[in-house]
Amino acid sequence: MKTSKWITGLTIVLCYIFLAQGGRTEPLRIFAAASLQGPLDVISEDWDIDTIINYAGSGTLARQIDYGASADLVILANAYWMDWLIERGQFAGTATDIISNQLVVIGPHGTAPMSNPTKTDLLDRLSGGRLAMGQRASVPAGIYAQAWLENIGAWGTIQNHLAETDNVRAALVLVARGEVPLGIVYSSDAASEEAVSILWRVPSDQHSLIRYPAIALTPTGEDFLAYIETRTDVLISSGFKALQ
After folding, report:
1. pLDDT per position as a tens digit, 197-233
2. For 2-100+211-237, which CATH superfamily applies?
3. What is the per-residue pLDDT for 94?
4. Distance separating alpha carbons of residues 119 and 121, to the nearest angstrom
5. pTM attached to this predicted model
6. What residue spans of the chain are helical by DSSP H?
7. Is 82 within 8 Å of 191 (Cβ atoms)?
8. Helices in 21-52 by DSSP H: which ranges?
9. Domain spanning 103-206 has what CATH number?
10. Do 85 and 64 meet the contact criterion of CB atoms below 8 Å apart?
11. Nearest to 177, CA basis, from 193, 199, 155
């Protein structure tokens, strides 16, 4: 009899936990831009439901979703790929911008800083090497980087000296390992890696606004998105910028 009561009590507790989580037993599935890795991990660890986060370049994530991958929440690093998915009928509704960022030029740790670099300055620093950045056709950080290089009149020359990567974190790794002398990444990426130094902070008016749009596809995704919006302090302390 005591065993029966114990089992009954345990069943009640488990049912309570199940209902408290909205009846969900599967982990929350999040597709997130690679640059969010780190602070988003911290935020998800404090959430009361297990999460599985797929980090990749925004273009890669968008294509995965277009091919049929399912998610509860999608956070990309620019509006282009989010609009692309909406136009293709993958999402209904409006995306919400949650945070911003800043482009920076980086070099291996200890590299001397730059001041308002020109095409000549960049070529001198490259000294025959390559500049690491995300693929300009699909990675938002690469798209922003190209816009900045065009703005300062350097693109025509620098485009022949690139090491393009599948996501911005891969560009960071190339610089951290000393495989290339320069890279263009986000401020948040540089802040996460001790093996690089920030050489120049790109003025935000020299390219389009960096913003991270998010869209929730399930009620649980909506709950987690609302929670992220209460924890932007974690993102800002990791080098992200508040929305203006």
Report:
1. 999 999 999 999 999 999 999 999 999 999 999 999 9
2. Periplasmic binding protein-like II (3.40.190.10)
3. 86
4. 5
5. 0.84
6. 2-20, 39-45, 58-66, 79-87, 119-126, 140-151, 155-158, 168-176, 187-191, 219-230, 232-237
7. no
8. 39-45
9. 3.40.190.10
10. no
11. 193
